[in-house]
Amino acid sequence: MSLNIRKGLSLSIGELFLYIQSNIPHLSKAASIDLLSFLVNVERKSVLAKLKEPILIDERAINSIELVKKGYPVSYLRKNHEFFGYEFYVDENVLIPRVETEVLVEEVLKNVHKDKEYKILDICTGSGCILISLLKNLPNSFGVGIDIDFKALKIARLNIEKHSLENRGFLVNTDAFYIDKCFNTRFDIITMNPPYVSRNSNYSSFIKYEPEIALFTGDDDLIFYKKMLFILDKLCKRDGLIFFEIGFDQSERLKLVYKDKNVRFVEDYFGNKRVMVWKN
Ligand SMILES: C[S@@+](CC[C@H](N)C(=O)[O-])C[C@H]1O[C@@H](n2cnc3c(N)ncnc32)[C@H](O)[C@@H]1O
Fold it and tell me: Do 123 and 194 touch, CB atoms closer than 8 A?
């Protein structure tokens, strides 16, 4: 839609939606609706019912559109992201939860009993999306999320409070490589979605706004998985379950690293092996 978006322009919400869709082609339809709801200050679920209503373009709208055109995530503008059906506070201090991570949460829930009491450890917790989604579905369980980044943990804390899980969800600021020194207990379920993109990869140039510490390893993209191989035996109960998110091209190499464990892989919606699972 060729429209010169400028301060003071009056148009309908529907016209603004068409503008977004044709001028920011990298946005999915869902993200376009998210952006629209942010720009017009109307709840996401009601915005499409208001397409005929007028809106006056102001400076905030112009700046936001320009940012999103450059690739700034709409979820950071809204300070909100939906994951596994729950709302999470997000900002530039945390990775925006990915849809493939929902596969991990789903796989955990398929392998446990809803009403049992589990002790869960979520390594590299970030926004807390994995831990919180699990605790919401396992009402008798308790969990700890660990992260090296204190700023990320502050967001995880906000999300634990948002979901009223203060009595069952706890956080520890520590380096994953030394977690065996942190706990004198063993866990029933261990989850981890670590950084797994090598700094040398092409992918690194696409990420401009999310925290580097959440995505990138040094040269070795498998470093977290290699280190955990030796640490987790001390942290996981016998017969405990371990679930790691992995990169789409890592399963064959990880099979070799974990050759002495009976690992299996779970595919995402595109058929890529994205979760590695085994029983201790
Ligand atoms: C890929 S993000 C995952 C965040 C969240 N669990 C999710 O699935 O959206 C990885 C997280 O690992 C944390 N991290 C990076 N290096 C770490 C380390 N050595 N020890 C603990 N956490 C680390 C980052 O701060 C970041 O929050």
Answer: yes
Per residue in 19-60, pLDDT (tens digit) is 999 999 999 999 999 999 999 999 988 999 999 999 999 999
In this structure, the residue with its CA closest to atom 17 of ligand 1 is 148
Whether residue 157 is found in the same domain as residue 226: yes
| Residue 272 DSSP symbol | -
Ligand 1 mean position, distance from CA 123 (Å): 7
Residues 133, 212 within the same domain: yes
Domain tally for the chain? 2
Tokens of 203: 């992918």
For residue 124, how far is its CA from the centre of ligand 1 (angstroms)? 4
Looking at the structure, do residues 72 and 168 belong to the same domain, yes or no? no
**Position 60, amino acid:** R
Reported as a single tens digit per residue, the pLDDT across 224-251 is 999 999 899 889 999 999 999 999 999 9
Pocket of ligand 1 (CB under 6 A): 95, 97, 101, 124-127, 129-130, 147-149, 152, 175-177, 193-195, 213-214
